[in-house]
Amino acid sequence: MTPLSGRFYRIIFATDLPNVLDGALSPEGRFHHHNQRTIYMSPSPQAAAVAVNIYLKPDDPPRLVVPLRISAARILDFRTPETEKSLGLEWRETAVPWAKQRAAGLPATSWRASDAARAAGADGMIYPSRTLPSRWWHLVLFDWNTPGSAQIQEDGSPFAFIPST
Questions:
Q1: Radius of gyration (Cα) for the chain, nearest Å?
Q2: Is 152 exposed, middle or buried (0-12, 13-18, 19+ CB in 10 A)?
Q3: Could you give the CA distance from residue 69 to residue 71 in angstroms, rounded to a whole number?
Q4: What distance in Å separates the CA atoms of residue 65 and residue 7, rounded to the nearest whole number?
Q5: Tens of pLDDT along 28-39?
Q6: Residue 15: phi, psi to the nearest 5?
Q7: pTM to 2 decimals?
Q8: Could you tell me the residue ranges of all domains in the chain?
């Protein structure tokens, strides 16, 4: 496990600001299924924009970028093959497009990585971006703001997210 603390950014719909620390609203996603608790974020506003780009629709309501402060997180870092190997996984299982697998009725391959990280007792995991893994990375937490887990709090004023065109 790697200790992690610092400032991260989460992009949410403006209407969801009161619940920014509640985590993902959907019952499943890249690293959660069956209503598992997760909160996704990135180390910079630019990296967060890369993460949400695939989900943007022209008629979306306004979004905000929310700065968050993470402390005392115990993380597994999936940017190196050693992490996946130590958990009995194949290299880059985190990068398999999960939504296509779910649309075909299959379990998402990426869930194997997050399930293994949860089973190892990690608060979360760092994973490389599918878009440009050598440049961008993201963070997902499974456990936060409970005794002995990672702690998250808002860390500054939210600002408007303006998608690149």
A1: 15
A2: buried
A3: 7
A4: 12
A5: 999 999 999 999
A6: -65, -20
A7: 0.93
A8: 2-152
